[in-house]
Specification:
The complex is a heterodimer of chains A (111) and B (113). With 111 residues, chain A is an all-beta fold. In chain A, 0% of the residues lie in helices and 55% in strands. Chain B is globular. Classes of the chains: A mainly beta (111), B mainly beta (113).
């Protein structure tokens, strides 16, 4: 049973607007969360992370929000750019660095 | 930058043949991982290593074995490939701290006919 879920397989957004990607997890023991971005025929690249002691982390155009009570995290991309078109994975990490990934959300940014 | 190379990048093989995928890192990172990516599943952990000769199973380890005789190399072996092992395989590495970033290699696309 998947413990990390991304329920939206795809998202289409206009250039310049906000992209919001969502992720839900089931295990309240998870305490470190990450977002990766993946282009076709390449490995995933790290985007941003957040630990459970925080509820928000920002890095440039990317902000991750964590709602521990709802077991939900989201990634906001503002403003969206054509180069942001990719598959985005959320993941949780344990102390060994073992990652559990969601199924991914394909983002398409249109002009 | 991961400093990770994977070889081969593409391979086609037949059911029942042994296959070994190689992951090489230029850093001396303690942790290395093998994942597979399949549609609808994201990436799933096969095996990981926390040091030379120290390895453990991940979520989908059946049919796979690994070896790590040197810090820089982590090998994934399919003893007898099956069609269900057709997938894209990614290697990753990470430093010693729990919050160190995990970096991924470019992947190996394996097709088992």
């Amino acid at each position: 049973d998947q413990q990390v879920k991304q329920n939206s397989p795809s998202l289409s957004v206009q250039e310049g607007r906000i992209s919001i990607l969502n992720c839900d997890y089931t295990n309240s023991m998870f305490d470190y969360f990450l977002w990766y971005k993946k282009y076709p025929a390449e490995g995933p690249t790290f985007l941003i992370s957040i630990s459970s002691i925080k509820d928000k982390n920002e890095d440039g155009r990317f902000t991750v929000f964590l709602n521990k009570s709802a077991k939900h995290l989201s990634l906001h991309i503002v403003p969206s750019q054509p180069g942001d078109s990719a598959v985005y994975f959320c993941a949780t990490s344990d102390s060994w660095g073992k990652l559990q990934f969601g199924a991914g959300t394909q983002v398409v940014v249109t002009p | 930058d991961a400093g990770i190379t994977q070889s081969p990048r593409h391979k086609v093989t037949e059911t029942g043949t042994p296959v070994t995928l190689r992951c090489h890192q230029t850093e001396n990172h303690r942790y290395m991982y093998w994942y597979r990516q399949d549609p609808g599943h994201g990436l799933r952990l096969i095996h990981y290593s926390y040091g030379v000769k120290d390895t453990d199973k991940g979520e989908v380890s059946d049919g796979y074995s690994v070896s790590r005789s040197k810090t820089e190399d982590f090998l994934l072996t399919l003893e007898s490939a099956t069609s269900s092992q057709t997938s894209v395989y990614f290697c990753a590495n990470k430093g010693a701290f729990s919050t160190d970033t995990q970096y991924f290699g470019p992947g190996t696309r394996l097709t088992v006919l």
